[in-house]
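[Archive record]
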Amino acid sequence: MQVQGLLLLLVLILLAATAEAGKNKKEKAKKDGSECEDWRWGPCVPNSKDCGLGYREGTCKDESKKLKCKIPCNWKKKFGADCKYKFESWGGCSAQTGVKTRSGILKKALYNAQCEEIVYVTKPCSSKIKSKSKAKKGKGKD
C-alpha cells in the first residue's frame, strides 16, 4: 500500500514539474519585448555568397527584428527559398528544345513571402540511357 502511495506522489510531482516548465517556456517567448502580432518579414539574406547562414529582417509598426535563417546551397531556383512547391513528374523530352519541363503548385509561403501560384522549371534532357545494374562480380560463380 505504501508503494502505491509513493508512486502516486512521484507521478504528481512529475506532472507539477512539467506544467511549471511549460509555463516558463511561454513566459520566455513573451519576454522578447514585443506585443506586436503583425510582423512583415523580408527574404533571407545570406552572410556571404548566395547560400548558407544568414538573417532576415522583420518589421512591425515601429519595431524591427533580425532572425537567423539558412538558404540551402543547392538552392538555385528563381522563385525563392521561402516559397515551397509541390512538383509533378518531369514531362517528356522535347526534341525541338532539348529540355524537360515540370510545373509546381504553391504549397506554402514562409514569412509572408510573395510567391507565384504556379511555377515551371526546365532541365536539359539526359543523353545517357540508364541501364539496369549488372550482377556483382564474384557472386554466383564457383
Observations:
- Residues 2 and 8 are 10 Å apart (CA to CA).
- DSSP finds one helix and seven strands in the chain.
